[in-house]
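Dear U.,

For the methods section draft, I wanted the exact inputs and outputs in one place so we can describe them consistently. I've listed the two proteins in the order they'll appear in the manuscript figures. Please don't edit the token lines directly; just add comments below if something needs changing.

First protein:
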Amino acid sequence: MLIILAFIILFHLAAAILCFVATIHNAWWVVTPAGRDVIFTDLWYSCNATCVPVENSHTTDAAYLQAVQATMILASILCCVSFFVFILQLFKIQQGERFLFTAVIQLLASLCVMIAVSIYTAQKNTFHMPSLQDGSYGSSYILAWISFPMTLISGLMYLVLRKRK
């Protein structure tokens, strides 16, 4: 049972780390213009030699970008909260009960990641300046997609998991 518990904790921590890295790292969109430096764009900044805020990110024109920012931050927070709730429930709930509250929070984190990445995928051309349209998805975008099934599986594991001795 201790091995299963260690695996669940490590799996949850890996999902949380992926969620944080995807939110923070500046490689959601990568553009390699001919003869110039590679330009990395994340949810807040576009960086090559210097970093500048994403154009119009503070206006209503970028409401989609603001939704992606908010849901990725919320997913990261919910993933951490569900881990702390799991640790608390590990010591507080009685034997034989399920970790339902932890599972619900983790499944909400999974839903937030899915919403954020889906919005980014559908609206990627409205986020970037015309000079940045000819790029490709970066490593943070891929990590966000990987963190979605990891948080989903983690939430489902908590749903099935019962406290044993």
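Second protein (the one for the lower panel):
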Amino acid sequence: MQATSSPPVSGLLRRAKLRHFLRTRRAQIAPEEVGLVHVERRRTPGLRREEVAALAGVGVSWYTWLEQGRDINVSEGIVNAVSNALRLPDHERAYFYRLTGHNPAPRPERRDRGGDQARMRALVEGWSFNPTYITDRYGGVQLASASAHALFGITPRDHNCLVKFFTDPATRRKYPDTDQVGRGLVAQFRAQSARFPEDPEFGRIAEWLGERSPRFAELWDCHEVDDPSQNVRRIALPDAGVVVFDRVVMRVPELPECLMVLYLSPPGAPRSAAPARELVDAHARGH
């Protein structure tokens, strides 16, 4: 198999991401985790290229080309084999698929949907008053509910969630789990960039933020990927203490580039916890 020449600019951007992603994932796997035992001391952490190639059942030269970002054809079977060798979780596997030009493999059907049903019920019942906003592909807020403005100070068209978090100390103080939230935002931004591999704006935003936030630069270099549909978010409010929300992220069919983010009172929350509407109303009255 031979590499082709003169790749388009979009292909170069995509393969640069692929190259960095594979290197960082390989470096995170200890040989002992995959049953490899070595006596000699290693100069670099993680697996070697030839070890990943052997685990995936592909040639060393071919895997080297893949990790170097050469313009080669990669089948879905090879993507799956390398994903297994690198022990990629579902969200990183989907990211890898997109970087190689394939649609992610469908996830196995889950039998127990009780948690999903509870979250959807809470979504339907609380749609009108829970903090809600819609972002563009880069995390820029396009629309926001009044409760989202009261809780987060979000002003549509003038608020980018990623930029605000890493450049505004007051915003970071709202989140007791600062490092976890920061990691999640960067990992989600990575996942979004794979959906639009031809868009250089992701790289420009990352470069701009990296110059202003050493922590962002560090997390961006880790190449972590996540595309969560639901997680828990703790927020510190001056008049209510630390409040726990179920943060739900949904894609909008009519706006394929956008994400809708909702903050709900978690299903099964103790009765002592005030509903989202009461918390937001009280916080708004304090402004």
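Candidate sentences for the figure legend, describing the second protein: Residues 176 and 234 are 7 Å apart (CA to CA). The chain has two domains: 9-99, 114-285.

Thanks,
Y.
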